[in-house]
């Protein structure tokens, strides 16, 4: 080696692994990398893609380091995004590499999309003209590049005709750039004429948009009040400033209708991002977001980790929705992280909901968030009239689950040629099957959960781990034949009851496990919107966002279902879900009705829904949270310790508890066996850490984990900051 060869550079690279910090690699001579560059590096025997990180490396001897294998030809991950990764890692106590991994989910996209070889017309003329050749030349006279097969197809000739012309120099090769996944939306395409309230709300959003700085605005408006129309104005304003926009939606099933609405307003669809995208499409979207070609993305929570080049607005629609919480590897709430992302990028964020989370309402009342209200539905559409059916007074017929009152209203609705929705948040036929002879209950072998009967499929299924078995004819315990009995209802069973009452009605059952998957689901939702079903029986999937113009009756089969599960948010969740689902009724001005079957008509949640007085509900709920020191007035973290055996899990959890540092403002509850004590064969114990609003929860947990026992054997510890689930 020559004496004056340039010194090797060493850079930190964050690899998609549960490592606490970036690893250091050598940059080969002649390779250019900068913070944010995506590179391929050796890791043990493998090679992985990682991101060059910021922290300067101390004087290490780069010659001893393994070199970066390749720097991808890809726009670097921006500084804001890198700070976002660091922030989430610190907040959720996740290894930064695991957060970075969420950005690196489209590996093929790190290389530029290939240009396609095409043909373009030259000045030259063919030696002789045929009818086929004439058609080709006419097609190609637009002066644009065509692909060989595309041109042949358009001209209705075989590709050999094209080859012949090319051989004569009539065409020459021209490279065609990759196609954009979506056309550019036009902010001025078809702005809605807003109503007075809407205009006031939109003006507030435009104002914060014009400033361009960080702000949070909560659009708090009843279902059908035009929240979407209003935040579209914020989207238009951000686009006018040349910024990229991210719209988060909680459900994939909702996106189709949303995309079309967006297209009506902006003349082109936004790019979609969710787990159901085809891999090729995923990579194209990722790449085009990184390059800035895609201006607006509508996506699920994971879209927060797209490598936006110049993001200037995030909208979180249905901000209260539990689907925003990820409870896998990195536990985060996308609504909260959207606010963090906007803060880091110093741009506005808009949260929209008909039933905002208590957290957001408190933030608004304490002026951390701006709040704009839309108290009335658009046009003549009135909110449905809501009544409770006291199931103690109007019980269903033997073996049934629908009160005669509800059945009567379904009949009337049918008579008027309008649609009914019966809502029950439980998939399958029955949540429990038991043997009438010996009392045997069918339980999942790997989870502490009953097996749910799915009668259409003839199976017993575990809703936690997916375990399934054929429903037997004889009891596996006592051998008695034909004595198995289904306990309680799921949507399939309600459908059976409905068909018994209304054999001639067009009835459809919708749940997330529908055969045919998301495609079928979309078709069914469209069909319902067009009026092609009379009675819809569905889970929460049909509760959200959809617009069914002819739906005038919503019956909630078991309004009490979510109330008794030990979750501090049970009342809030039930209130939100019941408001959402009854909000499906009467979206187009017809008189509509929502009916809640309940055994607790005096419960504050039922009263709030029936009276329509959501303010009273929020006031009461907020007061109770404050009294109990629950979020947002206090902080919570869950720690879930799981292991292959119960003893291991319990011992580890107890030792961890003993490692809790002394603190006056934070205390630890548990460990206690989790309500779901076994999932997928793993035994689970939970600790709950509760602190004041200003407590250093992360510092406390870090000290506790560091002082706790080493992870041994099958033991796993998961930290869940701001937990939504307590199971
Ligand atoms: P939300 O998001 O609050 O549920 P939407 O934005 O979906 O409400 O509006 C409900 C319905 O009313 C939609 O069909 C929407 O197109 C229509 N709508 C709302 N505001 C307007 C408006 N200003 N002009 C025309 N249609 C409107
Ligand atoms: Zn299971």
Overview in brief:
It holds the Pfam family DEAD. This protein has 19 helices and 31 strands.
What's the overall geometry?
A: globular
Distance between the termini: 62 Å
* Poorly predicted spans: none
The distinct ligands, each listed once, are: adenosine-5'-diphosphate, zinc ion
**Percentage of residues in strands:** 15-25%
How many β-strand stretches?
A: 31
What structural category characterises the helix and strand content?
A: alpha/beta
Walk me through this protein's architecture.
By secondary structure, this protein is α/β, with parallel strands linked by helices. The protein folds into six domains: 8-104, PriA, 3(prime) DNA-binding domain (GIY-YIG endonuclease, 3-Layer(aba) Sandwich), CATH 3.40.1440; 116-176; 196-379, 3-Layer(aba) Sandwich (Rossmann fold); 381-426 and 489-624, Rossmann fold (3-Layer(aba) Sandwich), CATH 3.40.50; 429-488, no CATH class; 634-721, Ribosomal protein S10 (Alpha-Beta Plaits), CATH 3.30.70.600. It is 31% helix and 23% strand. The protein is built from 19 helices and 31 strands. The strands form eight sheets. Strands 10-11-9-12-15-8-16 form a seven-stranded parallel sheet, sandwiched between helices. The chain has a six-stranded parallel sheet with strand order 17-27-26-18-25-24, sandwiched between helices. A hairpin with an 8-residue loop joins strand 1 and strand 2 (23-27). Helix 8 (252-266) crosses helix 14 (517-529), helix 15 packs parallel to helix 16 and helix 16 (604-611) packs antiparallel against helix 17 (614-628). The protein is globular. The model has no long low-confidence stretch (mean pLDDT 92). The protein binds adenosine-5'-diphosphate (ADP) and zinc ion (ZN). Zinc ion binds at residues 444, 446-447, 449, 462, 464-465, 467. This is Replication restart protein PriA. Belongs to the helicase family. PriA subfamily. Zn(2+) 1 binds at residues 435, 438, 475, 478. Zn(2+) 2 binds at residues 444, 447, 462, 465. Pfam families: DEAD, PriA_3primeBD, PriA_C, Zn_ribbon_PriA.
